[in-house]
TrEMBL record:
It comes from the Bacteria. NCBIfam families: fpg, PRK01103.1. Keywords: DNA damage, DNA repair, DNA-binding, Glycosidase, Hydrolase, Lyase, Metal-binding, Multifunctional enzyme, Zinc, Zinc-finger. The gene is mutM. This is Formamidopyrimidine-DNA glycosylase. DNA binds at H91, R110, R151. PROSITE patterns: FPG_CAT, ZF_FPG_1, ZF_FPG_2. Involved in base excision repair of DNA damaged by oxidation or by mutagenic agents. Acts as DNA glycosylase that recognizes and removes damaged bases. Has a preference for oxidized purines, such as 7,8-dihydro-8-oxoguanine (8-oxoG). Has AP (apurinic/apyrimidinic) lyase activity and introduces nicks in the DNA strand. Cleaves the DNA backbone by beta-delta elimination to generate a single-strand break at the site of the removed base with both 3'- and 5'-phosphates. Monomer. One of its GO terms (biological process) is base-excision repair. The keyword Oxidoreductase does not apply. The keyword ATP-binding does not apply. The active site is at P2, E3, K58, R260. Belongs to the FPG family.
Amino acid sequence: MPELPEVETTRRGIAPHLLGRRVTRLIVRDARLRWPIPEDLGIQIENQTFTAVRRRAKYLLLDIGGGTLISHLGMSGSLRLVPADTPVLKHEHVDIELDSGMTLRYTDPRRFGAMLWQPAGAEHPLLSHLGPEPLSDEFTGERLYQLSRKRSMAVKPFIMDNAVVVGVGNIYATEALFAAGIDPRREAGRISRARYLALAEEIRKVLARAIDSGGTTLRDFIGGDGKPGYFQQELFVYGRAGQLCKLCGTTLSECRLGQRSSVFCRHCQS
Ligand SMILES: [Zn+2]
């Protein structure tokens, strides 16, 4: 599933090819994504020029004409640029043809993604209740500490709550808690300020590192056949249940928290 770093990598990959480019045609082959693609989307973007390519949480925000095209990659979506005459394959649901001769092509086998329209000046309900960006100054350990007081839920689902901070998916929550030495099962409201300061730092680091490693894949957004921009960084615990901790050699444990699998080291995390 594309996580925040992949979405940011997508943004960086497609932005140079969209900015200042005019949309010549929108082709929707299948409008049935998580929500139907609005019928008037073509009217909104055809003959208009992209002026900004932004990101908020895992939403791509493409400013064009009198508003913003909001795109979400869902579970399996991807965006890449192809020459306009590139044959269309299965699951390639949307083409945005540009005056450069390139096409921004949206592929999504599971169709949990989204392509929506937001007129300028309005705030889409999907965006209105989101917490701060993890790499922004608004996200701090102090914020985690304050919001967690009197919360009895486990710390892992707490930091994965989009109202607390956006973009901390299962991989990054698992890895950041390991790096900070915090047991993912600990009650959020019982963790000290000092430990939250350390955890916020680790969340920033793990996401920044993932975004950096995505930078090496930027060329994959042009042409090609594959899925652009998905990458692996070195993982210490995520997906490694039953294997040995890379720091201490203890066999890694697994539990379920908030319906998600969580791997941790009983020795390194408390
Ligand atoms: Zn360990």
